[in-house]
Fold these 3 entries.
Entry 1:
Amino acid sequence: MLDFIRKKKESFIIKIVFVVIVLSFIGTMFLVWGKGSEGVGGRGGYAAKVNGTKIPLEEYQNAYQRIRNIYQQIYGQSITPDMEKALGLKKVALDSLIDNFLIAKEAKSMGIKVSKEEVANSIEALPTFQKDGKFNFDLYQQLLRSNRLTPKDFEEGQKQELLLSKTRQAIKDKATVTDDEALAQYKKENDKIELEYVSYAPNEVISEVKPTDAELNDYLQRNQNEFKTPEKTALSYILLDPAAQAAKLTVSEEEIQTFYQKNIDRWQGKDGILPLKEVKDRVKADALRQKATKQAFELAADTLYKHTKSNDLKQIAGQLNLKVQETPLFDANAPVAALAGETAVIKKAFELKEGELGGPVETPKGIYIIKARERKASVVPPLSEIRATLEVKVKAAKAVELAKKKAADAARKLAAKGALKTQTTGTFGFSDKGNIPVIGNAPDLMEAAFKLTAAAPVTNEPFKVGNRWYAARLKQRIEAPKADFDKTKQQLKLKMLPKKQEEALAAWVKGLRNKAKIEINQTLIAEK
């Protein structure tokens, strides 16, 4: 994403700088803190209630829209529903409002305040409002007006942002890294270890799996959709070819001119839009085709309407001088060859009840009127018909469970120093990427392995790496010199502190949420 932004023109960056500043006040700008159920937007619904205080729906909508705008500015395009779902924008907006509300409330009990001078200094320090390196009041007012903000609103938003920032920092400042934590990190970064392990893969134990009928039936009941036969339909249909209508029609000069103007983008040449005289034959042919298709559709619709009561496709076909065609049973994912590519027809076919007429349906091939001659519902076949397929699936699923169980049993034997044939990794150091010799990429196992000690040398649970389950025991640990730790302890603590501070802040906010009574309007974050 950063590479994407860097490639944008400078003008684009300048354009969004102020937007990002304003939008950074998610959940703070315009929020009426502590107004209770009578707060702004109270009568218009609420996004959440926190300890009885409503967070107005309007505030959620503003926060949500600001977040969407940020992403749209960054991506340079509209946020699609799939992108929005993946980013979790609705939940982000609501969580931001709730967290900021709780933090602001806590700030009061902590005695944290923001002075007018602090607000003024923070605004003057923003590069957006500076000219030649100094705060420019005229530029400040101009930018606020262009974004439809008053100084009072903007300064209140800045005040709330500073309040939240100071409160968060106060919590972070309480975090410390102990000598023991620093030593553990030092050992993690500098010690070398060697593991001995056993592993099991499903394909190695699948021959031991002998599913019973009860297990087969249980799997079938829990996974019916895997075995259901597809819903099928058989159609009778007629197809009107607009070309037959075109042979009876003409288009006037006025119709040609109108079609040319309405579809001007079709006539694009190397040097721009081609004049009508150069493309008149194409325009005339397309206009005639469109006119014929429209008339064919209207004729089909009118004829179908007249025979609604009789529900007789043969009568409709006879009136239109067409032949009724029929298909065998087919499912939506495997249509008959005659309907290959006719998505709209197939969709309509599976909306009809048996014996029901439908249409007209227009496709590039022509105008269809269809009738569902037969419908066959989706069903789950009896066990006797699908036993072989079912056994394959059940054995595969049970083999995964068995491989994990064997690894768990092996872990207990390793802990009890039981006799097991093991393999070894050779010595290796800690890697953030999680690559363990012989075993492969296993970040979780890497983390667990470097926490093993002589007193507790075995992982508590098996780890899945690829398609295998592993149980591991510490074979040896080559410790880094303690003297080197004493030399680098303070530097290491400073490196560890930011993460410790973020963890402390996250735990504190989580604690606030756990103690609070929060009622969320679920309709706001429900996926549609």
Note: The chain has a mean pLDDT of 87.
Entry 2:
Amino acid sequence: MKKLNQETTSGRVCKTTALLSALTSALLLTACGGGGGSDNAATAVSYTPGAVFKVGTTTFDPDLPAEPQLPTDAQVCATLEASNNLVRRPDGSLPPEADPSKTGVGVAVDPAVANPDQARIQSALDACGAAVDKEVGAAIAAADAAAVAQQTAAAVPNKNIAGISGEELAKPQYRGSKFAVRLVVNSKGPGNGFISGPLTLPSGVTLWIDKGATLYATRDVKAYAPNVAGPYCGNTAVSSSKAGSSSNCLALINGNNLINSAVVGDGSIDSRAYAEIVTTDKLYPIMKVDMSCSNTYANYAKGTQAADGTACDNGGTTVNSKTTARNMTWWDLAYLGNMVQNGTTGTGSQSNFRMMVFNYAKNLTLYRITLNNSANFHVVPSGIDGFTVWGVKVQTPSLAAFANPAGNGNPLYTGDTYTKDNVKNTDAFDPGAATSPTIVALTTGKSTTSSAKHAFDGYLKNFVFVYNYVSTGDDDVAIKGSSNPSPAGSNLAAVDGSRDVRSDRKSGAVIAHNHIYWGHGISIGSETNAGVKNVEVYDNSFQHSEEGLRIKSDYARGGEVSNINYKNICIKDADNALLFTTYYSTKGLPATGPKVPNFHDIRLENVRILGDSAIKLQGFQANTGGFNLPAFPLVMSMNNVVADTPSAMRMTMSDAQLSIKGVNLPIVASTDNRVTVNGVATWAVDGDLVLDCSKAFVDFPAIGQSNIFGSGWDK
């Protein structure tokens, strides 16, 4: 097997270490060393010069499939040019005159201005989808039908009908000769922006946003909630007692039942969650920053205007036609619903649209695209066989979020400007399994489907998340174990990296070679009830993140998480470098009773922590919450897990069985907290001899001047 291409570093002189007086009896000062540790903490650790891995320098990984490629010009179905009316500013925003707000009660905006490009982009996608289906649809259908027949006859216990594999469908005979819709800058003027409402991505089609072009989400709330009878989008409640939900809104890009689809390019997508919500229907209820509303859903459904003083049913107070307050933004709603109303009443939650939602696909790719400022989660893929995210940049909030004619930082309704702490529920990537297997027609256009039905087993398989740059206000990537398509009683995990692994890769669940900035790091959970196992996480860096490595759950959503391997990780200035907890929230228990989290066979190797940080290692205590429940301790091995300043680590440990080697963290056994430790921590581990982080932390790659972290490179 070829070695990873990487730089190495030679040995360094041992660093001077100091002992905390409180840990003198527990931590032994041993010979300087690193790279493997020793079962006997008083024995010098062996080290081979030149063997230290340098995080952030790998350019080729033989354990991964081949890098995706952009389409060629010959593979383009249609090329659409941006209108010269839409010119992106250097900070990434559109100027206010591009699609001006009209915020008075009973005032509607012009659809031609608020959403000028949705129809033409969707028309091009539909035409391309129809052409692909005509060219290769029969071949795909025949291959799938043959596979389904064979699998049905075999009747393998606990095995879903999956149809033809994604690995087989990646072959050229199942791809159209022309399959891409390309959005480009105007060839005769300055135009470089598109404004669109929700788009349907057809099977076999690639949406290609070229360098310099930006697809902006329309601010028209009606686009995401087109049905007068509901569900309703753009609120924190949908009745006096029921909270809002993002499932009430169409996503900006929707994709269901797909084969060989993609979103690619060196351009960007900006959901503009920082901008005022507007409406093309003057009766649609809009919430104002003074907490009044423009109408009620009850009156809107009847085509009437509610009288002033009528109680709002969208999370606001009362209808007020005289207010001069501006409309809420999507992030106003997120903060209000999740942090204020939910925190006080437990019933608030934003109904904000997501950037991309995909359900059931084989071979879905996101490549080199930049994603900014989602109103809710950026990418939510469920039940995908072959989900590849490669070279993608997510930055939320970006500099565009601070653009404001008054120059006051475009604040939240509270007056605070956007930070990593108040741009809520903007998870970057939340991959997981679907609820069940299905046999369904493929989506060939917004309102068309294939003539034949195709099988999907519902699992997340062959997930590759590599070479990405992610900064957001919530989880950077979180594998969700909330849904499970496995047969009842099978005891199979919803997400299993060893399931149907393709021949072109070593593992079926890989998160590697990424740079993480703001956000909650690389997570599993908090929904783990359906099970997650066999995930490989390696060669990743975290800089100024809220969390680094995290597995989170609670006994409302708990389940088994096992065989999770972390290796060659650099973490700098994180609030919580390591956070493994079975007490993530206090959500109400399901009617069926507690779901107990069980985290075991969690392995950390070559992890280096720089700066002041916290570490939380918490398994599940027996008889928690008054229930007669068994204990499920956190079972974890730590090999060469070191901090540059061990005295700055704030440790919380309970109900854990830890095996440690070459670890300088203040880890000690505790009878009171039910912590057992195999091995002894030593301050004599030299971080430079464990892992080289000198190239791990880099500027976020800027798009023009849009880098909130300062200078970067234009790419």
Note: Helices lie at 111-114, 118-154, 166-169, 221-224, 297-302, 330-345.
Entry 3:
Amino acid sequence: MTSRSDDIRLGADIGGTFTDIALDVRGTMFSTKVLTNYSAPEQAILDGIDVVIRDAGISAAEIGIIIHGTTLATNALIERRGARTALVTTEGFRDVIEMRTENRFEQYDLNLQLPTPLIPREDRFTVKGRIGAEGQELQPLDEAALEEIADKIAAGGFGSVAIGFIHAYANPDHELRAREILARKLSIPITISAEVSPQMREFERFNTVCANAYVRPQMADYLARLQTRLKDMGADCPVFMIHSGGGLISVETASEFPVRLVESGPAGGAIFAADIARRFGLEKVVSYDMGGTTAKICLIEDYAPRTARTFEVARTYRFSKGSGMPISIPVIEMIEIGAGGGSIAWVDAMGRIQTGPESAGSEPGPACYGRGGKRPAITDADLVLGKLDPDNFAGGAIKLDTAASEQAILRDVGERLSLNAMSTAFGICEVVDENMANAARVHAVENGKNISDNLMIAFGGAAPLHAARLCEKLGIDQCIVPRGAGVGSAIGFLKAPFGYEALASKLTRLSRFKATEVNALLADLKASAEGFVRTGASGRIVCEITAFMRYAGQGWEIPVPLADEPFGDDAVAKLKDLFEENYQRFFGRAIEGLDGLEIEIVTWSVKATDVRPAVARHELTTGRKTGKPTTTREVFDPVSGAPRSYGIVERDTLCAGDRVAGPAVIVERETSTVVTTSFDAVIQSDGAILLIRKGSHA
């Protein structure tokens, strides 16, 4: 009987259009893309595994570990396809998730519509009982009322329960007792906010516990089904999930806290880009991940992606901040827009070409897929422009219909604007590229950065098609398209550490700081975080301690990194100095001259991570000139505004140091890299493609 091997690892990423599989067999990578199966998502994973183990010449039983990321939780929230959920909350707080923060995300829109809350008002139940901000009980919990609420939920056909009480982050006793009472009469999952998101700010915390409860039955069922079917095919190995913060957690933890999976796929992509940055010693990088449904932009500094404690899902108003569903969990910070290969192109009331956020996905897919799709997608535009080979898409697994793309583009867009198919396709791609460029600029400015100072790393099935043009718009001179770019997120899963971030809000002013209490709190957080990591790691674990601090009266905090050691008698002075130093780094100067201005700590964070082996370092090379490609194809050239003969080069025929002069298209199984007239491409020692702007001092 064949036994599994620890040095054979598989990453599986379910996206909105494709499911990507990457298999690492002792350092050799095998990969494939399979159309996502919406009715049975696990089937696409099994189909992809069959392909890569056949290519690798191994059996499923030899796989040592499977690491999985998915957009299923995200899609369930966006499309409102979760379980009917009941919210049990403190009396007087029934409408918190509907009232939100009362901020207007579009200041001058008189007809502004707030997003519909995840749980309707008739499914929210209130109970007396009150915990104070310091964690003290102000009013006992009404247990008799909870018994009645349990009867109503049992008779109401609910599939899940969320419990969110005021100030439960400071003292979870009421939530724990409420769960105990409800569980005696209910056989459905019950989620409490103190375990999902023990942070202050009730709107974000209540919304997070509601989101977790909403998707929990569906995700638990899917993960159980996936494990069963993997074992049936012989892959009886540990399965771990990548969470939104970029670490790995067990399937059992993911089933209980599925809201942690909401940004799991994009997190894998950011880890992939960070690994490339570390490999080449690049300290300032912008990652560009464009798949079938969305495009993601993430800033990476000092080989690590930026992180945050909250993010928004399903923004409803032009991707405006505040118009979505806030989720209060640790997450890799990025900006995501509805611009993927399957994003639909259309014409608005003002006669402008628009794309997304609606996507054709894999069912029915873009018009060129021949699976019933009739509306034009970005992939259709790329095909008409000549960027794609209709006979060699996804390794030849999908034959593309150019005529169908032209018909869809003309019918829905071109005829309305009196344009031919080629001009319309160029207009669609220009809108997409400009939208992505604007998103990248905004993301950089919001973080106080200049986007043109960065090197771009492009991956995902569609990103290499658009990366050079995007660099032209952003003023970026260099872009790396790594080997395996088409399945970058799945490869990123294999690079992810076992990691978990534990958070706790405890509002503490420095004037009342007690080292013994804080040391005990941090010890508990460290034990919790390390406990999650130990489910999959046996080696050394390192912890990062962060205090989120502010001047008293400010609305938001800044992160202040701390040493992993207990606080002593000099803690207050050290914390004050560290806060002012970081405040000055964020805002230019600390606030001085105001007597009695207090500094306070809002939230503590402990991030535990197992130590990963160091990556081999490579130096970027500008290469040497090679002969002209023997094969050419007509590709629309954005500089001249007309089709032009582009050289076609197979990536596998190129060696380290080879240089391809643009314009050209470098093709491979999962994607194609378009080298525009402004760029040349050089193959690096690890097989990556480096796009270099002609005339730059690269």
Note: The first strand starts at residue 5 and ends at 14.
